[in-house]
Amino acid sequence: MIIDIFGRPKSLTSKEVKYAAQFFAECMMGGRLSKNLDLMITFEKTKTADGFCFPVDEGRHGPRCFEIALNRDMLRRKSLRVLAHEIVHVKQYARKELKQLDANVASFNGKVRKVTGDYLQYLFLPWEVEAFGTENALMTAYEAHLKSKKISFK
């Protein structure tokens, strides 16, 4: 897995961002798929969302290159939780579960959905339900892993 990081906040080291992204990806997709992905993780100031994920390419077997944008004003733990959430979307795109058909239409597991921009509707989109439901489990596993292996990025 190739991971490029831009605009990292002081609350995180590049080493931890890369380690966490790889950990989350391997949890979600296993080693074979995750090692064949390229991630560009950008931290930027934004007031619209905590994070975004979108594929940069579309290969025969699904996209393998992704951009993840994270709000740079978040604290370390929240940044990692949002990264975990976005890695769930990477898995969804890479396995062709999620496809963005146009700006306001997406397909998830073959079912087409209109995306309106309404926050309540957003929370119940099936790909978001999976991502929100999985992000805390990923964070718990990550923190337990760091503790058991006595890994620190300070």
Short description:
The protein is α/β, with parallel strands linked by helices. The chain is built from four helices and seven strands.
Can you walk me through this structure?
By secondary structure, this protein is α/β, with parallel strands linked by helices. Helices cover 45% and strands 24% of the residues. It has four helices and seven strands. It has helices spanning 14-34, 76-94, 119-123, 126-149; strands at 2-6, 38-44, 51-55, 65-71, 98-102, 105-108, 111-114. It has a four-stranded mixed β-sheet, covered by helices on one side. A three-stranded antiparallel β-sheet has the order 5-6-7.
Keywords:
4 helices; four-stranded mixed β-sheet; alpha/beta; three-stranded antiparallel β-sheet; 154 residues
Give a quick account of the main beta sheet: strands, pairing sense, barrel closure: 4 strands, mixed
Mean pLDDT: 95
The helix/strand class is alpha/beta
Strand content: 15-25%
Radius of gyration: 15 Å
Strand order of the largest sheet: 1-2-4-3
Distance between the termini: 23 Å
Number of beta strands: 7
Taken from the alpha-carbon principal axes, the silhouette is: globular
Count of discrete alpha- or pi-helical segments spanning 4 or more residues: 4
Query: What is the succession of H and E elements?
Result: EHEEEHEEEHH
Q: Could you list the spans in which at least 5 consecutive residues all have pLDDT below 50? A: none
Helix content: 40-55%
Describe the secondary structure blueprint for this structure.
Layout: E1 2-6, H1 14-34, E2 38-44, E3 51-55, E4 65-71, H2 76-94, E5 98-102, E6 105-108, E7 111-114, H3 119-123, H4 126-149
Parallel strand pairs: 1-2, 2-4
Antiparallel strand pairs: 3-4, 5-6, 6-7
Helix pairs in contact: 1-2, 2-4
